């Protein structure tokens, strides 16, 4: 079995960066950006204005990278993978725009959100626009399995967001609830991204690459939730304790609640029961409890479990540069600092 440390090996030297992982598909990613611009073009001024802003503050194209790398596994590739990768990124972007509006977030990756710069109504409409343009593009390609894969992922993400929104007693949120939430909100799209690449590449790799994407997504989200307790504003683009400020329970806190003393539970409950936004001292107190009670260590172990499951899935596909880059994606996802 490939070990997690083995994934960092190979020709990569020094800190593992996303740029290094994207090397084998760098040209394809440039075409993905061109495809996104083509797909979202509009003759309506407001839509064009928001589109331009979203493309300017775009993310790292991690999910399209997974699609293109999955398409190259087995030394097969298809130009349609570029369009499918663009669709994946558009659905991801639509989800972020909607999530920011739902959460009333004012920053994303350290930049103002659409709802902060314009209005919540504009954000909701723009999310719908991006989704609909993605669907139109899938219809143009005429690959029914691709429509099903992306439709299923979009549905799972929507249900996941609703589960989070209607979780009224946050501290009753169990580890099972957490797993189900991140499987829907994060892992579903990464699984779809990998499966789509294989769909127009080597179809026999669809199932293992889908499992790879799912487990990678689970590890990725746990690592992201850990950053809320260990990162700084400069590293993450959001203040440490952002989830706690929004009274969101993630795995480090779920694990802590099982070990906390009665006095510590009172401090945690006070933060979550209050109507005002908690201050830095309250956030710092709860972050300290999570660290002392092993919540961070437990979450790290679970992230590594999912990372190993992702690597095991890749053992079923052909070797080569693309497979090595996918293995390294696991290390990047679990060890990144932002």
The profile of the biggest β sheet is: 2 strands, antiparallel
Strand order of the largest sheet: 1-2
Q: What global shape is seen?
A: globular
> How big is the Rg?
20 Å
Structural class: mainly alpha
What is the CATH class name? Mainly Alpha
Please indicate the count of domains.
1
Give the distance, in angstroms, between the N- and C-terminal Cα atoms: 29 Å
> What is the strand tally?
2
Query: What string, H for helix and E for strand, traces the elements in order?
Result: HHHHHHEEHHHHHHHHHHHH
Given as residue ranges, the uncertain stretches (5+ residues, pLDDT < 50) are 5-14
Q: Mean pLDDT, nearest integer? A: 92
Oligomeric state of the chains in view = single chain
Strand content: under 5%
Count up the helices: 18
Architecture, CATH level 2? Orthogonal Bundle
Q: Any idea what the CATH superfamily is called?
A: Farnesyl Diphosphate Synthase
Helix proportion: over 70%
Describe the structure.
There is one protein chain. The protein contains 18 helices and two strands. With 338 residues, it is an all-alpha fold. It has one domain (4-335): Farnesyl Diphosphate Synthase (Orthogonal Bundle), CATH 1.10.600. The chain has a two-stranded antiparallel sheet with strand order 1-2. Strand 1 and strand 2 (111-112) form a beta hairpin. Helix 5 (62-72) runs antiparallel to helix 18 (321-335). Mean pLDDT is 92; it is low at 5-14.
């Amino acid at each position: 079995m490939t070990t997690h440390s083995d994934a960092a090996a190979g020709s990569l030297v020094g800190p593992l960066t996303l740029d290094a992982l994207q090397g084998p598909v760098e040209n394809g990613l440039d075409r993905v950006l061109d495809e996104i611009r083509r797909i979202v073009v509009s003759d309506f001024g407001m839509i064009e204005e928001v589109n331009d802003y979203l493309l300017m503050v775009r993310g790292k194209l991690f999910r399209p990278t997974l699609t293109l790398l999955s398409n190259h596994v087995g030394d097969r590739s298809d130009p349609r993978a570029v369009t499918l990768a663009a669709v994946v990124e558009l659905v991801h972007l639509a989800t972020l725009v909607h999530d920011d509006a739902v959460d009333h977030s004012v920053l994303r990756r350290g930049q103002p959100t659409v709802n902060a710069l314009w209005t919540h109504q504009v954000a909701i409409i723009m999310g719908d626009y991006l989704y609909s343009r993605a669907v139109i593009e899938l219809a143009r390609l005429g690959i029914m399995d691709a429509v099903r894969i992306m439709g299923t992922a979009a549905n799972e993400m929507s249900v996941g967001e609703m589960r989070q929104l209607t979780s009224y007693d946050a501290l009753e949120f169990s580890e099972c609830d957490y797993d189900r939430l991140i499987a829907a909100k994060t892992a579903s799209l990464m699984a779809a991204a990998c499966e789509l690449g294989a769909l127009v590449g080597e179809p026999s790799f669809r199932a293992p690459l889908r499992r790879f994407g799912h487990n990678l997504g689970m590890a990725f989200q746990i690592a992201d939730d850990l950053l809320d307790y260990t990162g700084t504003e400069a590293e993450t683009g959001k203040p440490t304790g952002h989830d706690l400020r929004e009274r969101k329970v993630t795995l480090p806190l779920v694990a802590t609640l099982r070990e906390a003393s009665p006095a510590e539970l009172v401090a945690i409950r006070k933060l979550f029961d209050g109507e005002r936004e908690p201050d830095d001292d309250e956030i710092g107190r709860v972050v300290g409890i999570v660290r002392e009670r092993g919540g961070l260590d437990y979450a790290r172990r679970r992230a590594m479990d999912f990372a190993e499951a992702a690597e095991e899935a890749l053992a079923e596909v052909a070797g080569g540069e693309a497979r090595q880059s996918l293995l390294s994606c696991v290390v990047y996802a679990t060890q990144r600092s932002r």
